Amino acid sequence: MLRIGLMGLLLAVASGCGTPTEPRSAERLVGSWRDLSEASGHAGPSEVVLTIGSDRSFTWDMRVYGAHPGQDPSAVSGYMTIFGTYTTNGNSLRFTGERRVGWDRALGPDVVEEAYEQDMYENATFQVIRNTLVLRYTTYPADAPQLTTKIFVRVR
User: Fold this and answer.
1) Which of 37, 51, 134, 146 has the CA that lies 20 to 30 A from 153?
2) Among 18, 39, 50, which residue's Cα sits nearest to residue 134?
3) What topology is assigned to 23-154 in CATH?
4) Helix runs in 15-129, H state only
5) Residue 127's closest CA among 109, 106, 107, 151?
6) CA-CA distances (angstroms) from residue 12 to 4, 16, 20, 23, 40?
7) What is the domain partition of the chain in residue ranges?
8) Counts for the chain of helices (H) and strands (E), in that order
9) Rounded distance between C-alpha atoms, residue 147 and residue 119, angstroms
10) DSSP character at residue 65
């Protein structure tokens, strides 16, 4: 009888019963993250914020500033927001887009909304280190796939 009681106590202690635990990796993804990349491929500077929800939704929001001739450098030239869902499996992360909304000042006042059924950050893995999110994923800059790393900082 004493032997079973000690076994139970050891199992309770070994399982961490009553001790605080660190959030699972996927839970640490939840929040808003600003992309630290310099290059945007646009005429003006851009800002990208990735918001990851606890409900498995995400938004990817890009704003481009001062891209048109004579435009104030701080004025928005255009934006694109992608809405979708994400899944995790260990440190693997898959973003699946569902809808895209965008506007470009050069094209007029109309906002364009359309279906966007596409994965983002192909074959992604993630790591959260304090307030930094590191994504490693596959890009295709030439004829062969290339491992790419993108760094985000938590904004909220």
Assistant:
1) 146
2) 50
3) Lipocalin (2.40.128)
4) 25-29
5) 151
6) 12, 7, 14, 20, 52
7) 23-154
8) 2, 9
9) 16
10) E
Q: How many CA atoms lie less than 13 Å away from 102 in the CB half-sphere?
A: 18
pLDDT digits (tens, 9 = 90+) for 65-105: 888 888 888 888 899 999 999 999 999 999 999 999 999 88
| Phi-psi domain of 56 (left: phi exceeds 0; alpha: psi -120 through 50; beta: other) | left
The C-alpha atoms of residue 91 and residue 128 are separated, in whole angstroms, by 10
What are the backbone dihedrals phi and psi of residue 74, each rounded to the nearest 5 degrees, phi first? -95, 0
Residues 6+ away with beta carbon under 8 Å from 7: none
Distance in angstroms (rounded) separating the CA atoms of residues 36 and 134: 11
Residues 124 and 136: beta-carbon distance below 8 Å: yes
pTM equals: 0.78
- CA-to-CA dists, residue 81 to 21, 25, 27, angstroms: 35, 25, 23
pLDDT digits (tens, 9 = 90+) for 53-76: 999 999 999 998 888 888 888 888
* Residue 82: HSE in the Cβ half-sphere, 13 Å Cα cutoff: 18
* Residue among 37, 93, 84, 80 nearest 59 (CA): 84
Residues whose CB is less than 8 angstroms from the CB of residue 142 and which lie 6 or more positions away in sequence, other chains included: none
